[in-house]
Design goal:
Elements: H1 3-13, H2 15-21, E1 25-27, E2 38-51, E3 54-69, H3 72-86, E4 92-94, E5 97-113, E6 121-134
Parallel strand pairs: 1-2
Antiparallel strand pairs: 2-3, 3-6, 4-5, 5-6
Length: 136
């Protein structure tokens, strides 16, 4: 398993998150005609640590988690549940991955307007996490 797979498994095992999204956690894009609320995630960047002998077996990944809902308060509530579940996690195994730390680095609120229909759309809270871990 990869760190990203382990992170998704952790979110899927968190009752405060699954009470809101059930199993609606998707890589990169929402499915066509999705049910809300939902989560999408993607890797933004990965920095592999090197030492004088080459790869050191450590990484820092920036992972973006997008919390989607039909209302702002629902998107905000989902984002808060995600944050409480993983921000500050560390010095422990996350499934098969040894995680040094998970830190919420940035968060922003967005509104995705439905083309041609003003004030109709989907609310989204984007959270960027920095995850430092050992590579397997």
């Amino acid at each position: 398993m990869t760190m990203l797979t382990d992170l998704v498994a952790k979110l899927a095992a968190e009752s405060t998150v699954t009470a809101i999204v059930s199993t609606r956690i998707y890589p990169q894009i929402l499915p066509q005609a999705p049910t809300f609320p939902a989560i999408t995630y993607n890797q933004v960047s990965a920095l592999r640590v090197r030492d004088l002998e080459g790869p050191a077996g450590k990484s820092r990944h920036r992972i973006s988690i997008n919390c989607w809902a039909l209302t702002y308060s629902a998107a905000r509530g989902l984002a808060d549940a995600v944050r409480r579940s993983i921000d500050g996690y560390g010095s422990s195994f996350m499934s098969d991955t040894w995680v040094g730390s998970v830190t919420l680095d940035n968060e922003m609120d967005l509104f995705e307007e439905d083309a041609g229909r003003p004030n109709v759309g989907i609310y989204r809270v984007v959270q960027d996490y920095i995850i430092s871990h050992l590579e397997t």
